Amino acid sequence: MNVTRSPNNTRWYLHHRSPQRFNPLQQLSFSEQEGKWRAEGTEPLFLLEGQLPLPGWNMLEVASEQDVTGVVASLTLESVHRSVTVDLPLRVGKVTKRLVYVPFGVKRLTYSPMSVEGTFSLQHFRFVWLTPTFAHNRLLQRLANMHEHYRDLPLPEVMQSLKQQAASSQARPEVAADCA
């Protein structure tokens, strides 16, 4: 079967999920400026409706413009059994990407675009489902790049070290309790 890829043919992008509606729940109003919102407090909140992210590892991509710098947004995933919140420091003029594990059974998503008063607009908001292998490799690579203990180690050695640490902490529960 010969099918061409085009922006109108979304069958190729089933793993890309974007909410269709951002419904304001609290401390949000439309700004006088076209396409902008006004956060009227320190806890503005949207309810995201439409395509929920697929369970498993997802790359959350967010781009927004705001009139203040140093803004931290947060996303809350709520299921019957638990609630998970992910903080996202937003960079001006760049897409912020964060690897997020979406638990099975998420029923509600809320998004706080900023933790201060001000105006903002959302240019891009999307979840991209990832294979577990790809997500694990990204996490290992980030650990190898950022943590001084693992810096410049090959990824298989990083994984081996993590497995050894996990095994030793299971053998000695007091070590795991001390780390918590």
Please, could you describe this protein's structure?
This protein has helices at about 130-145, 155-170, 175-180, and strands at about 15, 20-25, 30, 35-40, 45-50, 55-65, 70-80, 85-90, 95-100, 105-110, 120-130. The chain is of the alpha+beta class. The protein folds into two domains: about 15-130, Sandwich (Jelly Rolls); about 130-165, no CATH class. The strands form two sheets. Strands 1, 3, 4, 6, 9 and 11 form a six-stranded antiparallel β-sheet that branches. Strands 2-5-10-7-8 form a five-stranded antiparallel β-sheet, with no helix packed on it. The model is unreliable at about 1-5 and about 175-180 (pLDDT under 50).
CATH level-four homologous superfamily name of the largest domain:
Galactose-binding domain-like
Radius of gyration: 20 Å
Helix/strand-derived class? alpha+beta
Order of H and E elements: EEEEEEEEEEEHHH
Global mean pLDDT: 84
Global morphology: elongated
CATH architecture of the largest domain: Sandwich
First and last CA, distance:
54 Å
Count of beta strands: 11
The structural domain count equals 2
User: What's the story with the biggest beta sheet?
Assistant: 6 strands, antiparallel
CATH topology of the largest domain, by name, is Jelly Rolls
**Fraction of residues in H or I helices:** 10-25%
Query: Stretches where pLDDT falls below 50 for ≥5 residues?
Result: 1-6, 175-180
Our estimate of the beta-strand percent is 35-45%
Number of helices: 3
CATH class of the largest domain, please? Answer: Mainly Beta
Give the topology.
Blueprint: E1 16-17, E2 19-26, E3 28-30, E4 37-39, E5 45-50, E6 56-66, E7 72-79, E8 83-89, E9 96-102, E10 106-112, E11 118-129, H1 132-146, H2 155-171, H3 173-179
Antiparallel strand pairs: 1-11, 2-5, 3-4, 4-11, 5-10, 6-9, 6-11, 7-8, 7-10
